[in-house]
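Internal ticket - ligand job 195, fe (ii) ion:
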Amino acid sequence: MGWSEGEVEGMAIAGYLHDVGKLVVERDIINAPYRIDAKQSKELNRHPGAGFDILSPIHHPYADIPLMAKYHHERMDGCGYPDGLTDTQIPLGAKIVTLADSFDAMTTDRPYKTRRTFAEVIVDLRKNTGPQFDPIVVQAFCRALLKELNGETAERKFLKMLGKNYLDAERDKPLIVELLSELDPSARAAAVGGA
Ligand SMILES: [Fe+2]
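stdout (structure tokens):
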């Protein structure tokens, strides 16, 4: 995305800290081994605002981290929370946390649900890019994933995160290229060229 190393580092820290507001939410709700009800969900939805309150007074070099925590459950279409912001009102960093968080949720086993296959994740990304996710962020995500599957990265971060049997380069690369080319037709040539 053309970010500096420092900005990327700040983004990674936002990734670690974005849910810190869950500290104020009852532990039973956080650890519920079932889908929570509406009342519990309202309680859980306090966590982005609480995270902002916790992170704001801290002096650190990455000024946007409190806002990334506050807005990581907003959606492009304005149906998110806490403030119902839309597209350009949502900080780019918060949009990145949203996608990373959703990808993590989909690819991690939960007490009430096993993780989705990569093909299912792609279906979800296709459906929700626009209403929920920013296309710019999804494209960058796809490029990063493709780069790793093409063996062009020094470190295999996705592999480490997902375990060695989750992704299959030959099977999954076409799915990513397809999604990328739908989001940005000029990307297909680049992706195929780099493969
Ligand atoms: Fe969250």
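Auto-summary: DSSP finds eleven helices and no strands in the chain. The two ends are 20 Å apart (CA to CA).
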